[in-house]
Specification:
Helices cover 77% and strands 2% of the residues. The chain is an all-alpha fold. It has a two-stranded antiparallel ribbon with strand order 1-2.
Length: 257
Amino acid sequence: MVERDYILLGSMTLSGSLHFLTMIFGFLSYTTEGGLFNNVSGNVTTKYLIQFSPHNWVFLLWTTLIFLWITLIFIYLGVNVFRSNRDGKFYCNPALMSTPIFGIMSISFILHLTWLFLWDNEFLVGTTLVLFLLSLSNWTVAILFSMRLLEATEFLSHHARIDLWIYRFLIQNGLATYAIWITLEFFIKFGVALAWSPVSQKIEIHDYAPIPSAVSAIFITFFIAIIFPMEMILWERYFRYMTTPLFGKLKLIKLIL
């Protein structure tokens, strides 16, 4: 039983603050130029295209959806700070969103901010590397939370059934949606870097447009072929209620067909 956990509360506050900062900068990158950002993000995307680059409005739509989804997660977590149960404050009894999880989320938001500025300055290889780290950190958060949620399922099913479903559909699926979206971004930007990086320009690989797209498609296929069976067999008990990544995988399949 933990009455209060000020370290957990501090890590939650830091992570939430970084999220709101990332959200503000994200929308500024899509709408302004000449201030913090040299270019409108959509213009940079249009400049560096590969065969399966989605339309700019698709990026903006998913960005808005995910930012709002993560915002709802932090609003719910903030409300839990003022709630109590028989063991103490609800946010730490049980502490499904632990201090390490919030720490990794904070790193993720810093990486997201870094990605925005790297992409704005057209550092294509750097953008790809940061997106890889961002994807890795997001999946780490989603997996760690899913493991803790499974451990607390019995307690929540008896004492906080509504919150159990909120954890499943709001938080677990929200974290997974953020992870799959960043993974999709990584595969696209990997193809962009392969086609348009300074090294690629020297050998004029962008003149052979199918090559970068084909390489990215191979990696996407490999990702789906490995992850999907693992989710269905090895990790099924953890990801049973994680439904939104399925739509992300269908989007990946649609891109390579």
